[in-house]
Amino acid sequence: MTDVHDPHSSGTDLVPAEPIADPGLPEHQWRPTDVDDAAEKRAERQVAGFFALSAICTVLFLVAYFVLDIGDNWTTFAGFGASTMALGTTLGLALLFIGVGIIHWARKLMADKEIVEMRHPARSSDEDREGTLKALSDGLAESGIGRRPLIRNSMIGSVALLGLPAVVLLRDLGPLPGDKLESTIWARGGEQITVDGAQVTVPKMRISRDAIGTPILASDLEIGDLVNAQPEVLFNPERYYVEPEEVEGINLQVHKSKTSLILLRMEPGDIKPGRAADGSSRENWTVNGIVAYSKICTHVGCPISLNERTTHHLLCPCHQSTFDLADSGRVVFGPAGRPLPQLPLEVDDEGYLVAQSDFDEPVGPSYWERDYYDRW
Amino acid sequence: MRLLNRSAGRLSRHRRGPIAGLVVLLLGLLLTGGLYAAFSPAQADTAAEQEELVKEGRELFLVGCAFCHGQNGEGVLTQGGSQYGPALTDVGAAAVDFQVGTGRMPMAQPGAQAPRKEVVYNERETAALAAYVATLGTGPAIPDEELYSTEGMEEDELNELVSRGGQIFLANCTACHNFEGSGGAMPRGGYAPKIRGVDAKHIYEAMLTGPQSMDTFSDGNIPPEDKKAVIAYLEMLDEQPGYAGFSFGGLGPVSEGIIAWLVGLGVPVAFAVWIAAHTTRSSKKKDEAQA
Questions:
Q1: Nearest Cβ partner of A81 from B170, B171, B241?
Q2: Where are the beta strands (DSSP E) in chain A?
């Protein structure tokens, strides 16, 4: 050791070198397996036993793999899928027994003596440090980077340019929304179209129960009801002069991602109407206490329907944004940046709930080009 | 037999007699009256019984419910003006049967959540409370068994119902109650309870009445047949074996992750600590033993 501290060299002779004599290491105590041949033999058999158990588990794994059915006709055991249970248990135990065997071997039979290992200083030796620095400066000198500015500058330029692909690739995080979120198929109701050369007015878009598909009579709902709803065109395209393929497969999913609706009937007195995009009041956007809001959270677009009937607060399960559905969808908590878009409602001549028009703002998460208007 | 024939013969001789019509008429009236007597008093009995039940319910209500819900179920406000116990004037018998039948009411203490607990009132008392509260106003009645029972259905019919119920469940229920009905967290300390293994009747009543913070799914919202479909789906979930082993509440990666970290890693660590802490040492010396 180069840095052993010698107390006598500093002149502090008054301090004794070691106040308490070094007791040294305690005498080594042997394990039973070291001193007893029978115990040693027994430990040897135990280790082999663990390895044998592991082998048995492996065989059981193979048997379970081929014997237990999965797929259409699962073998079950005590209410569980027998195959998954058996494969997991046997493979787990096979690995565990190998580990236990090795540990048992090491602790009972492998060498058992105390070893003292002194600490080394963390600092490298002076020769090593000098050698490293010299190798570095030699390398720099040999590369001639100081003498050849053309090579140096062109290299720096090319490496710097490599940052650009990383920036450009960010564009692939998603297609730009464009105006896709600004209109939904709710707008189809009430449109003027030409069918076979004749001018036709598409009927107002009825609101249908999601999954069930039937349109909703305004009189059907009681105070406190919450309906997860969709436009009727998704279930009955012919009524709205829409081709069936337009609302099938991926098209259906695209539509649903924008049209999904939360319909709520509350005490009419609870509703505080806000303002629409054109500044007019939203007073006539509701029918008898029935309000309708987009189901798509304005934060990152999760579908939300965790509503508390007593407070009409709608909670998004993804990031806990909370919207007040009695107050134009105001954000009362969480990261959402703007209120939920509201769908103006009315009743058609047969008493069914219909949308007056499309949403008056884009649904879903905020994006750069999107306008914002204040409702209060 | 001969006697019967004789009397029948004697009777038939009079069938065109002047009083035959009168006798038949009298017989008919007797029969109608008899039938009426056999069935109608039963109704009269139930009406009286119902009255008795309501009276009994009123007494139970005054003792067990009136403190929070008011002496006539009109509701009680706190001094701050917030709701202490809501009005029960329009909740109907179904709400009482659900709340009392699952032990949610009477609550042990006021709070954000009325947890399911041991049922306090017996069946008769629950029925009495329900009958009394039903007289306070409108509201859904306790549903008939045929509305929610899937017993005795053909397998094909049941499968169709289950798949329809699954769609409706995914659209309407999973947001709060989790995709396999395990429940989930709600704002301000509330939670949507686990709805697995709950009586079909109570699930039906919960949809109908919207207990606590839950929205209602009235018959105009989800028609009775579709409510039954949801129940059929939940029953199917209960019967399904856990193909992948323990579901850990079916709460997704959070509960599975906790088990993996605490049990999956914790047990091996504890095992390793246990190994390191246990070594048998002998007091014998090696030389002695060999000697």
A1: B241
A2: 76-77, 80-81, 192-195, 198-201, 207-209, 226-231, 261-265, 290-294, 306-308, 313-315, 322-324, 330-333, 345-347, 353-355
For A49-98, where are the E strands, in sequence order?
Answer: 76-77, 80-81
pLDDT tier for residue B13 given thresholds of 50, 70 and 90: low
Q: Does one domain contain both A97 and A189?
A: no
Suggest the residue from B113, B215, B227, B283 to mutate for an interface test with chain A (most A CBs closer than 10 A): B215
The reply to whether B8 falls in a domain is no
Give the domain-ending residue among B223, B242, B261. B242
Pair (B231, B165) in one structural domain: yes
For residue A322, the chain B residues in CB contact (below 8 A) are 187
Question: Over the stretch B45-70, which tens digit does the pLDDT of each residue have?
Answer: 688 888 999 999 999 999 999 999 99
Domain count, chain B: 2
CA-based nearest residue in chain A for residue B83:
A310
* Test mutation, A50, A308, A321, A333, chain B, max B CBs within 10 A: A308
- What value of ipTM does the predicted structure carry? 0.74
Answer whether B247 touches A (CB < 8 Å).
Answer: no
Q: What confidence tens digit (pLDDT) does each residue in A96-127 have? A: 999 999 999 999 999 888 788 888 889 999 99
Predicted TM-score of the model (pTM)? 0.75
Chain A, 331-370: which have a CB under 8 Å from a chain B CB?
333
Classify B126 as helix, strand or coil. Answer: helix
CB contact under 8 A, A209 and B222: yes
Domain that holds residue A49: 29-108
Q: What is the pLDDT of residue B5?
A: 55
